Structure formats: structure tokens, C-alpha cells
């Protein structure tokens, strides 16, 4: 399951009530505690007709039996295998019908199960959560199948050098406590785990008096609370087992050295810090934010050339956590000077304290972030779950109060107590070369399997009724679109859910088609220069001005701004100054040039780059511009004048779109954008930045060795004669939901994971451009499973061509795509990204509604014909990154 980071909490005050009575407090928040102990929070958010339900069980890897570190994780997996009254196939079909945003996450002290769905499906989501609290099907046969999938997840994570470091770091920092192991688990422990053990864990901990249910979205709080009582009120509370104790030992300094498959190296300096339920949590959060500031010394390492990049990050669990200074060095570079600089920076923080101005800026930013959490239905639910389940607070507003109470004195005291070199864990991850790609010799495709579809899934009546009727949901978006006199496109979507504004912008460029011969890498160097400020404000002055209005800004080909609405005009002025008048100082150019050259040198030898380059060469004609890539020699041959020339040629208002979402009047937004960007002019005709069409590729296969990986990452790709404006894309997208969408309900998940345990996950994607397209199937598998998994993919695709999908599958696929329309409008980020992409591609802003109308009309025969005409099951290039496949 995916690992979601618990976001900072949003500031909404409310009062606690007991016994199931409605709470007093704000009009948008309802709280109750049922008689059986289930705590319920309902937060109304009318951003979109979407709801998020998050069931937080206060049990995770902390509570597992000794010697079985992955028990909680395994229970999380088995929760998707069905419950009494709801089979796994029914559960998968229900989740798919709701749009597919249905998953879970196991952490140290909390396991969370969530739906993000159209509001009309709230009752279905709650009924599923209720059934799963009551019981789960934990039979041995189901566990045997799921164990194969979870062991593939273990193999995937252990193939990641950063995860190996994380595992060793936790063991060192938290020796003798439950935090000494991660929630993932091990193959050895899963081999010894029984279904009976998993059922026992569920029955002990998955009880109402050990759970917090958070519901956020466009719902009726009174009716929702009544439904919650009806669904959960008769589930009996139970006496909870004793919780584990935490007796932290002093950390002994240690250095960890590991190879990495990344194109660059990493230096980490880790220290134990207070956890989320500590009285010092807010202080720790402010300390970390101040150290990570773009005005602070760690970030400065990347600006003066000491490192490629520097920052500070933290991973805080309920009882404790860790903070880490991070420095990135180029392949072949010496990490020791960076380590010494990081040690000196933290030693100074411990001895002399943190700049009070950075502390105050960090506080303002953290408080502003609370308001920004309202801009996402999912984020709002996360905020409440974070406050109650992870931080042990009564409401998110308590975190705001705690942040406000932080002082520079308390931050300095925590820095002194934390940054003691005698208790530091140091890690150095050094890039390791991949071997050269090796042409494959027959792996993938030899076997033949009987496969999907099984008989259609018959939904229970309560779910069948909810999904009986398909209709295109009405969009909540009513954007106002302008084209300014200089050709810049402006789209404004007013939203009043918070006192914030978010801006999303993009200049449509293509380095492969717009840079001169031998100038590959010029776009990367240019992007690296924007953080150095403008001609009017150097980087520190610019960041100080942004900090003063609690704004976050980035400039470049893609640019953005997030700012409280009261300061939108000033934030927009600062963004435009950075975007239109970048400083590009000569000293900074020399630094960025060497940094980009170092990164490129590492990329050229990394397994990931060699895999993608191998795919490109196999899919595209020789000398295709998409095959262009930078070399260290190209980058070092660049001059500042060439970079400035590229900027002047490619950054044009008539190739630029800006989308503004938030509390702003469209006419006022246009006025401010014209003031900030109106003097920007373009010279000459608009350039063509779209790649030309290409012929179909020949099939092939190759292996890019990755010495750090135990699992193979497999991409099966082919060129496609379908473009982003081809009407055929609708039938292909619909078929793609049958084949790879909807989690367990898809054919590939069923055949690769559910019935055989060959993979942990499998993904399918269409990448359609103006004149060319590609189709890719991706999965991770052990080397001895690659051939079988690849053969199943080919078999399932041929089946899509040979027979129409079932009516059940067709209806479910349509339901997924139709319900994804409101899900795509449930956050400022989703709204802004959608409108920006549509504008850049020249599509109407109501294209999602138009697509929904197409999906409704399509038949199973249409899908079959599209796959038969455009997909070539025997035409894949199969790229394997990792050990050589076996068999």
C-alpha cells in the first residue's frame, strides 16, 4: 500500500463532546464519541462534491509480536481480501466503481484506511469500513496468495539503497524499542506468519474504542453522523492489550556507508528528535523548518557550490523521531568536505543558536500552511487525522497554538540538546556504476496461461443500487479565461474555501527542438539560475520578501506561487520579477554549470538513465530529437551568453499559461497579472515545440544491470499511432481501466498479483503527444518471475483484442472514469494542474465533461476494436532494470 505522509494540520477550532451528542463549535465541524468509544470528526468542505473517509486504528508496527515486525503491515494487506458479507472481488469492484482512490498505510503507531470518493458514495464507503472493522477473511489460502505480493513489496523496498539506509538508521537511533524496526516486515517473518496470527491482531486492535474516524468533504454533517451511528454503533468495544513501552538508550555515533543506484551521492547527518506527541513537537517542527530555509546555511551549500543541494528534513513518529541534515554530491565527488560543512553548521546551531529571524519566518510559514490545508479535501482529512491520531491533540487548532508559543529560546535549547556529535548517525551513499545494457535472450513471453476474466462479480444489493446509474457528473469549475494583449493565457478559478491563492504557470518549451547543436543541458542550467533571485533582488532578499508575506514561490519553465490572499498582489509582483528578470550572475552560472555537469555525469552511468536511454533507442528512429541528452562536455562548453540567449528565445508570453485558483476576483486577477506580466513581449513567430510522428517500433528486450537491486523493475513499452487529440483515445482509456485500473478489480492485478503473487503492483499508461504516443506496462518482480509476469501481460492484451470486455467490466470502467471527474476538482493543485494542462494542449477547459460524454456512449465492441487496431501485444520493447531475469 502507498506510504502517505501525514500532513501538517489545518486550524479549525471545535469542542469535544461525549456519548454521541453533537458538539458545539464552528458550523463546519461536528464531533462525537459513540457509546462504544469510536471517535468521529466530520468536517464540511464544499470545494467539490467529494468526500474523504479515514479510519485511523491506533495500532501499527509498535504493537506487533516480537520477531514478527511486519504483522500490522500484513493485516493491512489482508483487509483488502474481504470480510464476512463482502468478498475480496466485491470489495475490489466497489472501490473501483467509486473511482479507485482507496488504499491504506501502516505506520509505527497508526494504521489508516481511506476512501476518496464522490460524496454520493459516502454511505457505501462507510458501510465498507464498518464491515472491515467487524471482521476480515483471514483464511490460510488467501494469506498464502497475499504473502507473495507483500514479499514483492519487501523486495522492491530492499532494492532501494535509501530504504536500506533508513532501516539501519532506525535500528541505530531506536535500539531496544519498537521503532528499531520499520513497519515493512521481512520475508523471513512473513514466511513464519500464519493467518491465525493476523486474525488475532485484527481482533485485538481493530475495535471502535481504538479508532478515530475522520470524514471531510461536501457532506451533510447531521445525516452523516446518523449514518455513522447506524453503521458502527452496535460494534462492541473491547479491552485493549497493553501498549509497548519505550525506553530510549543514548545513541552511539556511527557511520553507515552504502552504494546507491542514484546518479548522485548523498550525505546524511541524523539525530534523534522529539516525537509528534512530545511537548517539544512544535519546537522541533519550527527548528527543522528554520534549518531548511532557503536563507539558511544548509541550503546555501547548494548555492555556493559546496554541494549540489543541501537541506534539513525530519521523520517524526509519536514517541520520537529523527532529523537529518542532507547534502548531495556529484558522482566521483568527495563527500568529506560536505560532511564537514554540515557538521560545522549544526555545531554552530547548537552553540550559538538559530537566527531569530529564521525562527519567526518558520513560525509564520507553518501557521500559513495550516490555512493551505483547506485547499484539498484529502489534505483536510489528513490534517484532522494527523492532529488526533498522530499528535494526540484534541483539534488541529491546538497545533496552531503550539506553534505560536514557540520562541527562539526554546528552539535554541532544543538545538543544543539535539546536535551532539557523540550521538550522530552519519551515512554516506556513494553512486555505483550500472553495467552496460545487455540484449535479452528470450526472457518474457514464452509461457501461456489461462487468465481473466472470471465470472462477473455480483455486487451486494446496497452497492449495486449505488452504482446502478451512470451519468456525467456536473463540474463545479467555472473558470474565466483571458488572452492578454501579449498572448499570455490567463485562467482564473475563484474558490472561497480558504483565505489563500495558488498560482500555477508554465512556459511551453522543448529543449530538444529549441537548443543549438551541442547545447544539450542548457535548459537545466537555466532552471538552476532562477533561485539566485532577480536583477532587483538577490536570492536572500527575494526569499526574505517572500517570508515576510508567508509565500512560497518558484520560477522557471514551470512556475508557481502560494500566498495568503491578502498578499496576492505582492506575491505576484515578486514572482513576475523573478520570472521575467532573473539575475543570472556570472558567479552563480559557474556554480550551476559545474553542478549540472556533475549530475549529468552521474546520470549517464545510472541504471535508470541507461534503462530509459535503451528504451528510447529501441522505440525511436536513429537521431530522433527526443534521444538528445546532455553530457558533461556539452554542459561545460556552455557560456552564460548562450544561456541568456536560450532564455530570450524560449521564454515567451504567447507560449505561457497562468492558472490562478483561490480567493480572488477574476477581473482583479487579470488587472494584477497585466501589471506584473503585461510588458513581457515576444519576438517572431511562435515556435513549434511538438515532436514529429514516428513509425512503429520493432520488438526487443534488454537488461540494464543494477547491482543494488534484488528485484527487477520492468517496463514493457511500444510506440502508438494514437495522439492526444485522436478520438480513439477514449476507447483506449476505457479499456485501460479494465486492464490496469481500479486496483484489485483490474485484469492485470487479478492475474499478476491476486491469483499468482508475481508482483506487488502493476501500472499501465498512455503517453499521448501532439503527433506521437507510447503505451507502457510497468511492474516489479523477482528475476525468476519476470518471464511469467511478462507473458501474462501479453496474454491479457491479446484477450482484449479477441473478445469484448464484459458488460460488468465496461460499466465499472465507465464508473471509474466518470467518478474521477469530481475527484480531479477536489484540491487547488488538482484544479490548477488540470486547467493548465488543458490550456497548454489547446483543449477546451470543459474537456473532462466532454470526455465523460464520450465514455458513456462507448460499447465493449468499440474497446475491442481500438485495442485490436492500435495495440501490438507482440510489439513490446521489454526493459528490465536490475538482476538478469531467469527462465
Automatic annotation (TrEMBL):
* Signal sequence region: 1-23
Record keyword Signal present: yes
Which terms are listed as keywords in the entry?
A: Signal
Instruction: Output the Pfam families linked to this UniProt entry.
Output: Peptidase_M16 (PF00675), Peptidase_M16_C (PF05193)
Which segments constitute the Peptidase M16 N-terminal domain?
39-185
Keyword flag Signal: yes
What range(s) does the Peptidase M16 C-terminal domain occupy?
194-365, 638-815
Q: Which PANTHER family match?
A: METALLOPROTEASE, MITOCHONDRIAL-PROCESSING PEPTIDASE SUBUNIT ALPHA
Name the chain's protein: M16 family metallopeptidase
Ranked from the top, the taxonomy reads: Bacteria, Pseudomonadati, Pseudomonadota, Gammaproteobacteria, Lysobacterales
